[in-house]
Amino acid sequence: MNILIDNKSGEPIYNQIYTQIKNQIIGGELAADEMLPSIRGLAKDLRISFITTKRAYDELEKEGFIYTLPAKGCYVAPKNVELLREENLKKIEDHIAQIAQLAASCKLSREDIMEMVAFVMEEQA
Hints:
Blueprint: H1 13-26, H2 39-46, H3 50-62, E1 66-69, E2 73-76, H4 81-106, H5 110-124
Antiparallel strand pairs: 1-2
């Protein structure tokens, strides 16, 4: 597992950890039932407070991305397909909102945007 902390970011450190682990789970880089580093171990590796790491793990568990076995550690929860789909739909909606703002600033028409999307999708096929 690879976690990078950006101290210059305005984003809280626990949220950076939460987001990166969540993205690795959604992206399939972390498999179901895979053991995560211990809270203290990850804190030591990242040179941060274990409380910060614990907060990130607590958020991940609350959202259903990980589960904890007492005295054994934290593990990646089996993927809930509907949860992952919702996460991806939310990301798409966020990107579309950004596209709409940029398009408005460039005075692009709806047809121009749809043409660009179609082109990108054809490139990926």
